[in-house]
Write a sequence for this structure.
C-alpha cells in the first residue's frame, strides 16, 4: 500500500489508533499486509545498545501465538475490571530508599515504552502510576505492525491501544466472535463467509475481506488483519444496517481486552524488573545532590514516599475538554472522551460532537455496532485543519463522505448549544440543541472537543522546578523532549502539538538514548533549545501573550529604540542636534541597550545608578547637558532614556538570570529583589525595616526610601510590582531634576521611559512606559506618534522569526549568554 493510503488506514479504519499516527514510518507488503519498520533495525545496528540487551526487549514476541485463542476462552477466565480494581496492593517502602537514573511519572503506552527502552540500556527506572482508585492501572496496550493486536508492549513497531481502540476491535470482530460461539478460536472460510452474510454484510464487502485472507481456517487476528487491509479502500467495509449490539456481550469483551492489557503489561514489567508505585505525584525540585525529588501520595493508602532520580520523564497523558453549559453524567447519557468508558448500554441513537480526528473512529465503531450515529462538526475549517495536521486531509474528507453514504447524518458548522439528559437513556432519548436551533433526539451524547495535558497537579511550573507550558497548557520541549528545566523530560499528550496526531513511540526511544548519552545530543545551550520551542507559532504566541500580560505593549528592545528614535527624529532630535542621557542599571546584561542606542546615535552620557535610578542630581545632569550640540539658534536638545530592568523567561518566572561562571541563578534586578526580601521580612511579627541612610550603602538606602513611598502600606509586592514602582520613581526623578536644571527658553528635551526585560532567545525586550517632549515649558505627549510607528508590529511573529533564524544558524558548543533568563531555578 502507498504511504498515503496506509495513513488513511491508520487514521480512518479505527482498528488501531486513529490519533496514534506514526504511519509515515511504515512500509507495507501488499500481499500479506505485514509491516516492516526501520527503527528497531537502527537500534540493533547501534553500537551503543548491545544485541544481548535487545534480546530482552523483543523476547515477549515469542508469546504472540496465545493471542489466537478465542475471545470466549479469554472471557471464561473471568478476569473483570472489578476483579482487578479489588486487588489493592501496597507500595514497597524499599523502593523509596533507592536512587534511580530516571523516574517516569505516568503509566500509559509512552511511559511504558520509555521504561523498556531505558532498561534495555541498563538504566534503573521506576514508574509512578497515578490512575484513580477505581480504574485499571496499566490498561493501555499496543497494536503490532502486522495490523493486528498482539499484546502489550511487544517491541517498538507498534501503536497505542486505549479504550477507544479496544472498542474499535470489539466492533470490527463482533461478527467473527458471534460466529465463533463454540470458542474454537478459528473459523473455516465458508463458515466465516456465511456468518458475515447472515450479519447483513453486502456481497462486495464479504468478497473484499475474504480476498485479504491467506489462511484457512481463519483466526480472530487473521480476520482483524484482513478487515483492516480491506478498509484501506473502504473504511466502512462491513458496516451495515442492523439492530444495536447486545451490550451484555460488548461490555465483557471490552473489559476482557483491557484487563488482558493490564495483565500482560504487569508481566512485561516484571520480566524486565521495572518497579512501580501507585499514587499522586508532585515534583518538589532538586536538592544539593542535584537529584530530582518526586513526592508520591499513595493511592487509597498504598503508602507515601519520595523518589530521587537523576532525570524525570513526565508522561501523564491528557484529559478530555468539556462543553460549557453541558451537564456530564454517564448514568444520564452524556459523555466526554474519558467518561465514554462508563457507557453501560447499547445506544439506539448517538450524537457525537467534535472536530478531533477521534470523532471518525468513534463514529465508525458505534455505526459498526448498529447504533444510528449523528456526527456534528462545529467547525469544518478546524476539522480540516486537524486532518491536514495529521497528514490525512484528502483521505479524511473521503472518509467523511463514505460515512454519509453509509447512513451517518453529518452536520457541519453547527455548534452544541445545550443538552438535556435522561434518567434512563437506554430506553428514553433526550434532546440535544444546536446553535442553529436544530434539535436532535438521542440516547447518548459524546463530545470530543480536544484534550488538555494532565500536568496541573504535578507542581512542575513552580519556581523551584521551572517547567514552562504554552497557552494551551502543554509542556514545552526541545527536539530531545527535554523541558525548560534541565533533567526533566516530557512525552506523549502532555507536550501537545503533533503528539496528538502522532504517538511518536520511536521519538521516545531516541530521546531515551539522548538523555543517557548513548547518542550525540544536539546543541544543548539554553538559547538554542528555546529557539526550538519558540520556532513553533503556538509557543511563540504563548510566550508573547504571557509577556504582554505582565508588561502590556512589550516589544523587542531594538525595535523599541528604532521606533522611539523615529518619533523624536520627526521632532528635530537626532545625533547631530541632541545628546542622549541614559539611565539603565549598571548590570552588564543591560549593555545591549546602550550599545544599540549608540550605534544609531552617537555616544551617550550616563546618568545611571543602582537599579537604573538617577541619583547624580543637578550636577550630573548639568555635566551631561554641557556636552550637547548647540544649533544655529543657540538651542540645546537632550533625550533622556530611563529604565529599570527585570528578567522574565519562557518559564514565566520573574527576576532570575544565569551568568557565565556561576552554577546557580542570580538576580535581575538584584537590588529590587533584595528590597522585596526586606519587605517580606519586615512583614513578620516583631520585625521592622531600617529606612535610614546607610553611609556604607548609600544607593541602596536611596532606592529603598524612594520605592517605599510608591507602595501600599502592609502589602508585600512581587518583583514585577516593585519594578513598576521603580519605573515611576525614576521618571519622577528625571522629570524633576531636568526641570530644575534646564533653561526652558534655550533647551528642548524628551523623556523616554520603560522597563528593560531580559527574556527568551538571549534577547532584551522593552515595556514602553512613556514618551513626552518638553519645549518652552510645555509638555507634549508623543504616545500617539509611537503607537502609529509600531501599528504593524506583532511580538509573536518577531519571536518566531528570530527563533527560526537561531535554529538555522545555531553553532555547536556555544555558551549561554549572560543575558539569557530561561534557566532552571
Amino acid at each position: 500500500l502507498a504511504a498515503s493510503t496506509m495513513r488513511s488506514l491508520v487514521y480512518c479504519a479505527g482498528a488501531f489508533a486513529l490519533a496514534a499516527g506514526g504511519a509515515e514510518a511504515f512500509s507495507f507488503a501488499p500481499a500479506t499486509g505485514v509491516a516492516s519498520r526501520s527503527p528497531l533495525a537502527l537500534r540493533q545496528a547501534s553500537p551503543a545498545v548491545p544485541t544481548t540487551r535487545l534480546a530482552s526487549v523483543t523476547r515477549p514476541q515469542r508469546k504472540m501465538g496465545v493471542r489466537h485463542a478465542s475471545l470466549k476462552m479469554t472471557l471464561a477466565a473471568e478476569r473483570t475490571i472489578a476483579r482487578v480494581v479489588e486487588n489493592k496492593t501496597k507500595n514497597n517502602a524499599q523502593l523509596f530508599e533507592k536512587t534511580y537514573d530516571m523516574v517516569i511519572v505516568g503509566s500509559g503506552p509512552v511511559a511504558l515504552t520509555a521504561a523498556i527502552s531505558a532498561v534495555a540500556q541498563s538504566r534503573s527506572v521506576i514508574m509512578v502510576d497515578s490512575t484513580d482508585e477505581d480504574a485499571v492501572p496499566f490498561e493501555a496496550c499496543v497494536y503490532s505492525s502486522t495490523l493486528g493486536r498482539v499484546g502489550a508492549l511487544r517491541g517498538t513497531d507498534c501503536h497505542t491501544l486505549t479504550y477507544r481502540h479496544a472498542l474499535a476491535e470489539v466492533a470490527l470482530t463482533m461478527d467473527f466472535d458471534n460466529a465463533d460461539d463454540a470458542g474454537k478460536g478459528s473459523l473455516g472460510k465458508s463458515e466465516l463467509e456465511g456468518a458475515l452474510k447472515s450479519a447483513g454484510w453486502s456481497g462486495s464487502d464479504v468478497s473484499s475481506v475474504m480476498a485479504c485472507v491467506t489462511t484457512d481456517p481463519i483466526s480472530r487476528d487473521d480476520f482483524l488483519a484482513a478487515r483492516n487491509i480491506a478498509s484501506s479502500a473502504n473504511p466502512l467495509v462491513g458496516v451495515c444496517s442492523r439492530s444495536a449490539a447486545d451490550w451484555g456481550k460488548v461490555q465483557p469483551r471490552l473489559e476482557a481486552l483491557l484487563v488482558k492489557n493490564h495483565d500482560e503489561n504487569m508481566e512485561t514489567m516484571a520480566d524486565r524488573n521495572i518497579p512501580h508505585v501507585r499514587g499522586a505525584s508532585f515534583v518538589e525540585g532538586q536538592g544539593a545532590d542535584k537529584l530530582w525529588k518526586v513526592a508520591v501520595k499513595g493511592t487509597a493508602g498504598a503508602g507515601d514516599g519520595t523518589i530521587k532520580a537523576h532525570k524525570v520523564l513526565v508522561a501523564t497523558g491528557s484529559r478530555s475538554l468539556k462543553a460549557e453549559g453541558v451537564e456530564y453524567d454517564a448514568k444520564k447519557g452524556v459523555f466526554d472522551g474519558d467518561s465514554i468508558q462508563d457507557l453501560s448500554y447499547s445506544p439506539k441513537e448517538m450524537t457525537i460532537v467534535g472536530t478531533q480526528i477521534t470523532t471518525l473512529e468513534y463514529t465508525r465503531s458505534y455505526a459498526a455496532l448498529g447504533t444510528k450515529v449523528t456526527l456534528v462538526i462545529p467547525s469544518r475549517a478546524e476539522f480540516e485543519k486537524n486532518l491536514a495536521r495529521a497528514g490525512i486531509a484528502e483521505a479524511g474528507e473521503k472518509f467523511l463522505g463514505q460515512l454519509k453514504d453509509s447512513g451517518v447524518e453529518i452536520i457541519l458548522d453547527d455548534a452544541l448549544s445545550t443538552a438535556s439528559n435522561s434518567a434512563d437513556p437506554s430506553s428514553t432519548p433526550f434532546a440535544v440543541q444546536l446553535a442553529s436551533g436544530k434539535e436532535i433526539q438521542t440516547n447518548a451524547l459524546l463530545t470530543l472537543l480536544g484534550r488538555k495535558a494532565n500536568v496541573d497537579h504535578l507542581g512542575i511550573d513552580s519556581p523551584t522546578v521551572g517547567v514552562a507550558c504554552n497557552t494551551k497548557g502543554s509542556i514545552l520541549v526541545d527536539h530531545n523532549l527535554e523541558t525548560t528545566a534541565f533533567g526533566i523530560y516530557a512525552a506523549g499528550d502532555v507536550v501537545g502539538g503533533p503528539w496528538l496526531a502522532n504517538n511518536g513511540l520511536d521519538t521516545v526511544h531516541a530521546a531515551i538514548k539522548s538523555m543517557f548519552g548513548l547518542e550525540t545530543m544536539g546543541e544543548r545551550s539554553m538559547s538554542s533549545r528555546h529557539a526550538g520551542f519558540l520556532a513553533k507559532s503556538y509557543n511563540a504566541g504563548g510566550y508573547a501573550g504571557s509577556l504582554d500580560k505582565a508588561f502590556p505593549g512589550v516589544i523587542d528592545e531594538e525595535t523599541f529604540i528604532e521606533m522611539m528614535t523615529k518619533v523624536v527624529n520627526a521632532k528635530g532630535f537626532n545625533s547631530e542636534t541632541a545628546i542622549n542621557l541614559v539611565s539603565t542599571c549598571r548590570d552588564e546584561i543591560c549593555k545591549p541597550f546602550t550599545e544599540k542606542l549608540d550605534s544609531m546615535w552617537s555616544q551617550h552620557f550616563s546618568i545611571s545608578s543602582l537599579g537604573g535610578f538617577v541619583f547624580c542630581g543637578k550636577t550630573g545632569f548639568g555635566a551631561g547637558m554641557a556636552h550637547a550640540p548647540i544649533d544655529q539658534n543657540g538651542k540645546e536638545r537632550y533625550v533622556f532614556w530611563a529604565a529599570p530592568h527585570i528578567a522574565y523567561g519562557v518559564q514565566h518566572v520573574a527576576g532570575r538570570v544565569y551568568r557565565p561562571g556561576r552554577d546557580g541563578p542570580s538576580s535581575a534586578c538584584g537590588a529590587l529583589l533584595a528590597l522585596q526580601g526586606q519587605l517580606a521580612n519586615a512583614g513578620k511579627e516583631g520585625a521592622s525595616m531600617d529606612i535610614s541612610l546607610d553611609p556604607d550603602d548609600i544607593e541602596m538606602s536611596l532606592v529603598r526610601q524612594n520605592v517605599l513611598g510608591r507602595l501600599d502600606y502592609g502589602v508585600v509586592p512581587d518583583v514585577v510590582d516593585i519594578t513598576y514602582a521603580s519605573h515611576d520613581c525614576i521618571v519622577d526623578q528625571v522629570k524633576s531634576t531636568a526641570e530644575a536644571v534646564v533653561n526652558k527658553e534655550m533647551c528642548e528635551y524628551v523623556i523616554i521611559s520603560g522597563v528593560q526585560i531580559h527574556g527568551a532567545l538571549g534577547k532584551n525586550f522593552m515595556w514602553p512606559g512613556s514618551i513626552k517632549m518638553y519645549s518652552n515649558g510645555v509638555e507634549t505627549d508623543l504616545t500617539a506618534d509611537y503607537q502609529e510607528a509600531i501599528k504593524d508590529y506583532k511580538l509573536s511573529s518577531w519571536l518566531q522569526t528570530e527563533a527560526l533564524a537561531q535554529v538555522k544558524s545555531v553553532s555547536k558548543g556555544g555558551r549561554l549568554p549572560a543575558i539569557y533568563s530561561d534557566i532552571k531555578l
